[in-house]
Give the backbone structure.
Amino acid sequence: MALNPTDSVTEGFLPAAARLGLAVTLLTDQPEAHERAYGNGRQDHAFPALDIVPCDVRDFAEVIGRIAADGRPDAVFTNSDHLQTQAALAAEYFGLPGKDWRAALRTKNKAELRRALAATGPDAADPLRSADPLRSADPVWSADPVWSTELATGQEPATLAGLDAPYPCVVKPREGVASEDVVLVADADELVWRCVEIRARRPGAALVVEEFLDGELRTLETLGDGRTLHVLGGFRTELSPPPHFIEERLHLLPAPPPQPHTDQVLAQLRALGVGFGVCHTEYVVQGDRARLIEVNYRAIGDQCDLVLAELLDIPLFEYILRTHLGEPLPDDLGARTDGRVRMEYVLADRAGRLASAPPASVTERDGVRLDYRPLRGVGEEHPLHRTNRDFLGVLRATGTDQGRIDAAVAQYLAAHRWEIV
């Protein structure tokens, strides 16, 4: 199930399905875009037998009905952040392995995420735990709730004028992705007008206002089969200056991931019922505490998943699909631990037309591989989004020596220009 085509699906999951000998039915509300993505321009990838079927994939009842018309499948899978609950409900309907739909919903809904974590302390009664086998039977994490409140659909932003919030705080769409319309606000007046501004772009959207978690931003990448939960690795993320939160670069953290933060994140994932399939979790380090920003119950994006599979030297996308086919994961994935990567995103700093930019290239020198991929074509004109839609290109620098990687990236950026007019 998919919305728009993504690199994760085009270069990761579909080729993996082909290697596994699977036939794939792709349900999507954007069939023409997928036809273009897998047409003559994408002959560099080996795709499986692929049937692209139009479907309102945001409606789980439509998804179930469309699948049922073709007979019971072997697996239902999506990597879309927006479709995890629908896919989980469809898998459950057909008696197939999948994520618990409640865990998918409570991670997608950022207000429910905060409520669920606040309710899972050792002294809190947790009615969800008895109904959800993946949730920990014994509390293993002492609740460290993040202050938050919700501006519900239909509720006017003016109602937040007298909010007793810990300013500065963050406002974001309740079901948002990619830092779109995520902004730091300094006081109550700014909070109200930022909410009005966001609602102008997203009429009626529910918003979340929450405590600003200042500190080093990290990720934890996990893969589980409901029995075993593997830590694939983690990244340190550098963001643009506030008030917006745009990812500018990521560095792979050396394995094994740092403690005690990793264990704290895993405990919070268990409390949320997360443990099946792949998951990308973002958290902030504050001393010895790991405080969750958000849980994305899918693979990390923006080509980081592709690089992770390459560096770990494991069939990562096949493992993910096999899990949804009901196959257990091995106790040891056999992943390499000496790889390092720097993902450098070249950002537009203004609206306009991209007049010049370097072409795609791959070079290797002194043990560092540089793979530059344009994400916007020369001649294209775009507004400034203040999200990852402002990426002009991505530079993937890999090797085993972080110092050499950083030096190679600096040399590449100094030698090339991106001009917007």
About this structure: The radius of gyration is 21 Å. Confidence is low (pLDDT under 50) at residues 122-140. The longest strand covers residues 276-286.
